[in-house]
Automatic annotation (TrEMBL):
Keyword Hydrolase annotated: yes
InterPro entries on file: HAD-like_sf, HAD_sf
A single MF term (Gene Ontology): hydrolase activity
Name listed for the protein in its UniProt record: HAD family hydrolase
Amino acid sequence: MLYTLALERLGVSAAEAWFVGDSPRNDVWGPQQVGLRAAYLPTGHALTGQTPDATLRDLRDVLSLLPRP
């Protein structure tokens, strides 16, 4: 699966990463199937039963997902 390949190449576990996107199926449901946390950026694709781990107001909100030092 593409998500696990990307994690392997980056050298991180799914628990250490976020997947951000605007497609409920591809960017919320899909990543969650391999243990990634999913942040949803609503841009016109409505959620249809998916439950993102975070919902962003705009792309700048990605910074709020980063751990604080």
